[in-house]
């Protein structure tokens, strides 16, 4: 929004007007954070039982955190627990040291190191098919059900193996050639809108199914549980013990509940305050547009939370871009740029905090923590963040030359998002040819696949892929799907060799891999702040032909 980004894009850039500028100010930033940041916390509280207990979504990072916490507080099964803690610690250390080793070869920029290792060949690497040695996603593959990992890989093959390469051949026909990698008018527009169409198709179907089941339960005055996507049933004595433990977790999770009336009234009240306040901060955004955003936001928050529960990917930025594009097109040339950027901030805040809260509920469920206490803690943390985040930004903004292309803090996404908003002013007509038609087809396909999962016998439906998991690599890339598939192959073989051992230790190993990767981010950030660059850039290119 600021003057510097306006000048970087160029005063002669079509649609880039001097009037569409709003420079940062500590006052309006803190106010904006307070009126939009809490809505996401209230948007999905009523669905916590469905997401955590009924659908059994794994939320891999939340599960890993819970296992790490439980390892220090276990009171039963001391011998097994001791082995699990030892296993977790060992693989946490391996993951941390591996990330430390990788850092020495990661160089400066985004093209060096093991994260860009063309393990499947340079041609496959161009389409993001490579194994990037990420402990986090191998760990996610060990935690997530096999159907999730296989669905993710299938989505990567469909999108990056066939769809995007085919659409790329239409450059110059369906869309202008030589566009930037983040230009909605080109291939990027297909990636964003097609992936979101699949996510919305899956999310809308499941949300309608939940609403239908809830209404039916109320009308019949009895509990009615339909076919859920990720329920695993185990038999025998071990299964009975697991069921007893699971029943205890369920009772603990549901006893200290957050009243639905509180969640609903909180969301409505905060939405009313925000609807009145946001137009004061951004006059370009009319109150009725803000109200419409808050009506649609719970659906998008559900979709994002559902996807994060399956694959550990939080796609809040993708939903933010959709909000940016739609609001910019609705407002038009008279303020559409600022309106789109403001809507992007609103949408990202809601869907991101909703997914984070649901992930924390998953952690609380596994650690037998009070959901009410966790919710209150989230409220306190969010309130602190509404002050600390703007203050931190303001410290950098005043101390450094933020946004300078030749400086340390280039902030490249500032230019990208402003250009997206400028493009959004033109509306859906700016999208590349056939984009909306393809989106309609993928939306319908997501609904049909979910219908097939619900109407076919369980022996068949367990092999039908999950559209939500398939959609994530459409936008992100194929590399993480390959990492997760490596994890699921390891688990599959392990289960065949020694199922009991895999059940006891797979979660501990996965948690260690994920936590070690996360802990490395702290020293990595310190090295970055101290401006200490990796000494080696490991880079791959084709050998010279003779």
UniProtKB/TrEMBL annotation:
Sorted UniProt keywords: Membrane, Transmembrane, Transmembrane helix, Transport
GO MF: oligopeptide transmembrane transporter activity
Domain of life the protein comes from: Eukaryota
Pfam families reported in the protein's UniProt record: OPT
Topology of this chain in the membrane: Multi-pass membrane protein
Main location: membrane
Residue ranges crossing the lipid bilayer per the database entry: 26-47, 147-167, 187-208, 287-306, 337-358, 379-397, 431-452, 472-494, 506-530
Subcellular compartments: Membrane
Entry-linked InterPro entries: OPT, YSL-like
Gene Ontology CC terms, in alphabetical order: vacuolar membrane
Keyword Iron attached: no
Similarity annotation: Belongs to the YSL (TC 2.A.67.2) family.
Protein name: Metal-nicotianamine transporter YSL6
């Amino acid at each position: 929004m600021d003057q510097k980004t306006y000048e970087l894009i160029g005063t002669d850039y079509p649609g880039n007007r001097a009037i569409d500028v709003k420079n940062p100010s500590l006052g309006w930033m803190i106010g904006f954070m307070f009126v939009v940041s809490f809505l996401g916390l209230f948007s999905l509280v009523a669905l916590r039982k469905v997401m955590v207990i009924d659908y059994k979504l794994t939320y891999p990072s939340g599960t890993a955190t819970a296992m790490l916490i439980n390892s220090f507080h276990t009171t039963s099964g001391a011998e097994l627990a001791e082995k699990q803690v030892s296993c977790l610690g060992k693989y946490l250390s391996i993951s941390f040291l591996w990330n430390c080793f990788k850092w020495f070869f990661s160089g400066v920029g985004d093209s060096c190191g093991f994260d860009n290792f063309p393990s499947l060949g340079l041609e496959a690497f161009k389409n993001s098919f490579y194994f990037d040695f990420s402990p986090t996603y191998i760990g996610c593959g060990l935690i997530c059900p096999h159907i999730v990992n296989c669905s993710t890989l299938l989505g990567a093959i469909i999108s990056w193996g066939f769809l995007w390469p085919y659409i790329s051949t239409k450059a110059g026909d369906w869309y202008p050639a030589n566009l930037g990698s983040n230009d909605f008018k080109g291939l990027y527009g297909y990636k964003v809108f097609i992936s979101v169409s699949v996510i919305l198709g899956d999310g809308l179907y499941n949300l309608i199914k939940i609403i239908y089941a809830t209404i039916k339960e109320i009308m019949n005055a009895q509990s009615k549980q339909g076919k859920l996507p990720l329920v695993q049933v185990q038999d025998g004595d071990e299964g009975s013990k697991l069921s007893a433990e699971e029943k205890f977790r369920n009772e603990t999770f549901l006893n200290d509940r957050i009243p639905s009336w509180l969640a609903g009234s909180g969301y409505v009240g905060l939405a009313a305050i925000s609807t009145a306040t946001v137009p004061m901060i951004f006059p370009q955004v009319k109150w009725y547009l803000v109200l419409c955003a808050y009506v649609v936001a719970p659906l998008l928050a559900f979709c994002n939370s559902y996807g994060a529960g399956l694959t550990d990917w939080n796609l809040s930025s993708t939903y933010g871009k959709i909000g940016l594009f739609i609001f910019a097109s609705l407002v038009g040339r008279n303020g559409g740029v600022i309106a789109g950027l403001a809507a992007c901030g609103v949408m990202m805040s809601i869907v991101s905090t909703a997914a984070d809260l649901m992930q924390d509920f998953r952690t609380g469920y596994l650690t037998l923590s009070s959901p009410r206490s966790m919710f209150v803690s989230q409220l306190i943390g969010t309130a602190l963040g509404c002050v600390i985040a703007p203050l931190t930004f303001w410290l950098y903004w005043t101390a450094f030359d933020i946004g300078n292309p030749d400086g340390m803090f280039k902030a490249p996404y500032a230019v990208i998002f402003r250009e997206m908003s400028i493009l959004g002013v033109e509306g859906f007509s700016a999208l590349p040819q056939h984009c909306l038609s393809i989106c309609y087809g993928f939306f319908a396909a997501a609904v049909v696949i979910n219908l097939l999962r619900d109407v076919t016998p369980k022996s068949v439906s367990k092999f039908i892929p999950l559209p939500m998991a398939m959609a994530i690599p459409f936008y992100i890339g194929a590399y993480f799907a390959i990492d997760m598939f490596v994890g699921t192959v390891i688990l599959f073989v392990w289960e065949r060799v020694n199922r009991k051992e895999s059940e006891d230790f797979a979660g501990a190993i996965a948690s260690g891999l994920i936590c070690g990767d996360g802990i490395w981010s702290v020293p990595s950030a310190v090295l970055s702040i101290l401006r200490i660059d990796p000494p080696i850039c490991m880079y791959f290119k084709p050998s010279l032909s003779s």
